[in-house]
Amino acid sequence: MELLKVENLSVEIGGQKDKVKPVRDVSFSLHKGEVLAIVGESGCGKSMLCKSVIGLLPKSGKITAGSIYAAGTDITHYTERQMEKLRGSFFSMIFQDPLTALDPTCTIGSQIAEAIRVHHKDMTKAEVNARVLDLMHLVGIEEPQERKNLYPYNFSGGMRQRSVMAIALASNPRVLLADEPTTALDVTIQAQILDLLRMIQEELDTATILVSHDLGVVARVADRVAIMYAGKIVEIGTAKEVFYDPRHPYTWGLMQSLPGFSRGKDRLHTIPGMPPSLVHLPKGDAFAARNEYALGIDYEQEPPMFQITKTHYAATWLLDKRAPKIECPIKRGRNDE
Amino acid sequence: MSENILEVSHLTHYFKLNKKVSIKAVDDVSFQVRKGEILGIVGESGSGKSTLARCLMNIYEPKSGKVLFEGIDIFDKKAYRENKKFLQTQRQIIFQDSASSLNQRMKAKDIIAEPLRINHIRTERGSAEAEASFQLKYVGLDDSFLERYPSQMSGGQRQRIAIARGLTTEPDLLIADEPVASLDVSIQAQIINLFKHLQEEHGFSIVFIAHDLSMVEFLCDRVAVMYHGRIVELADTKSLYEEPLHPYTKDLLSAIPIPDPILERKKVRPDYSKTVYDTEGQLKEVKRGHFVLTKEGGEAVENK
């Protein structure tokens, strides 16, 4: 069943003069119990896509085209009051920096309890308390009875992120949006949080959208991967398809900039240049200027989504019938499976 | 003149929380940095990497220990006074967060030329602005950035400005405290390449502090692993990554995500939070150039 479906969504932010288009014509769907990863550089509109889905766009932002369906219902033009009912119960969000997401003046326990009480007004104090302990146990905080009376500053980065997850899970959301949940954390803690995300997702059968800029992070948890560039999804497919058979030159570039691919070489591979500003987008494919495989048509016309397999799509002219055949530059030994 | 540019011996720094409790941020750390070498220091947050960097820059006064920079004891007040200009120009530091380490109210050209002004160094290229423009080119930015403020630049560009500022006095030792931690993967690669290029060009030494082990593997000649204020393993990059000896290093290496879904999912990870590693003992040379923290007379340290 499609839990969440986004169709041709476009978002604009700003006034008359400088309109930023952080999301341009984005379509994807999210199935029950699935982890979809959205990967891209900072400023490519990943966070804005999440925010537009749960209706947290800034005041100057608005959805200009397309629609969002939550469990089959069109929620594109829901009012704030209607959205409030969905947030927490249908979807909730985990933010990047756990320290700013938590209130420094309240104990962890009371912050989790608050999230429960919003959706379950009839719960008694004892029931809420029991649920708080349950949630803390679920996200792997040990000795919840003592720890619930501690403040965020008593917690380490990993523990804070666990607390934020407990708050997000307070009323059993069906869709969890995690916006760079591990960027502020150490490698070892990051590994733990990712495993926890996967475990929770399997246990509660929630669907998850994981936003990240690191393909390495995504490999462990994602079922499907969407690569985003300048507000558009340029490649989407199952994790295996995107990792083992990437088609878009931007995906190639992202993979090659990981140090693992340059082992034994003198230089790391880089994508030349900077991502374009979303205010003045160039004509044609936004990636053309940084693309070493760019064709003439890339500067003229934006490529449509080409279908590769039933689940794998990429937007690059290289997939057109008339394009020259270019081998994927990533070579890897496939001694697995 | 010795081949080591920096010799650190038994450096210890405590932070006092109150009268009774103090935190050992850096605990009996000894290592050397050779000339023209990139030494990586890795460890989780709270392992004392940044405190160590700040001690090396005279920002903190350590409780005990000795640091010799080109043979000068930097914590000896008399020696410091006599060589102040030398010490301040030949060591430079680059901080993690370029947004807060660059003055928001200064233009790039002023930021880059400031070390020259402070140290009263005659510019080789005529004016401070010419000098700034030269350094900008070095780090891969064009002259249009001279007049910009830090807020008008992206994170990667700001970090380049910070590097350019560190290079104006042509230092022999550059200390980089997590210079790529706040950047995107693709921009990280650009900055790492820049470090490598600059090092080859100038031949200075770099102490590169990071928590990202894969970047360190690529850039550094030798790597020291820090845990709870102590160096638990110190070895050539190749030897450390191929044959980690200390259990903490092994766990740290296993936590690096691999961009390969099948391999990555097969990996069984230990529970990092529960393991406590022993920090007793002394660094002992197990193989040539490969040091591991070892207990008195015993084998390599085991998990508690």
UniProtKB/TrEMBL annotation, chain A:
MF annotations from Gene Ontology: ATP binding; ATP hydrolysis activity
Superkingdom assignment: Bacteria
A Gene Ontology biological process term: peptide transport
InterPro entries, sorted: AAA+_ATPase, ABC_Ni/Peptide_Import, ABC_transporter-like_ATP-bd, Oligopep_ABC_C, P-loop_NTPase
Keywords annotated in UniProt: ATP-binding, Cell membrane, Membrane, Nucleotide-binding, Transport
UniProt keyword annotation of Membrane present: yes
SUPFAM superfamilies per UniProt: P-loop containing nucleoside triphosphate hydrolases
Broad class of the protein's primary localization: membrane
Subcellular location per the Swiss-Prot or TrEMBL entry: Cell membrane
Sequence ranges assigned to domain ABC transporter in this UniProt record: 4-255
Matches recorded under Gene3D superfamilies: P-loop containing nucleotide triphosphate hydrolases
Stored Pfam families: ABC_tran (PF00005), oligo_HPY (PF08352)
A single Gene Ontology CC term: plasma membrane
Topology class, membrane: Peripheral membrane protein
Protein family: Belongs to the ABC transporter superfamily.
Record's protein name: Oligopeptide/dipeptide ABC transporter, ATP-binding protein, C-terminal domain
UniProt organism field: Coprococcus catus GD/7
TrEMBL record, chain B:
Residue ranges annotated for the ABC transporter domain, each copy included: 6-253
Gene3D superfamilies xrefs: P-loop containing nucleotide triphosphate hydrolases
InterPro entries tied to this protein: AAA+_ATPase, ABC_transp_ATP-bind, ABC_transporter-like_ATP-bd, ABC_transporter-like_CS, Oligopep_ABC_C, P-loop_NTPase
Keyword annotations from UniProtKB, A to Z: ATP-binding, Nucleotide-binding, Transport
Stored SMART domains: AAA
Pfam short name (any one): oligo_HPY
Gene Ontology molecular function: ATP binding; ATP hydrolysis activity
One GO BP annotation of this record: transmembrane transport
Matches recorded under PANTHER family: D,D-DIPEPTIDE TRANSPORT ATP-BINDING PROTEIN DDPF-RELATED (PTHR43776:SF7), TRANSPORT ATP-BINDING PROTEIN (PTHR43776)
Family the entry assigns: Belongs to the ABC transporter superfamily.
Protein known as: ABC transporter ATP-binding protein
Species this chain originates from: Coprococcus catus
Upper classification of the organism: Bacteria, Bacillati, Bacillota, Clostridia, Lachnospirales
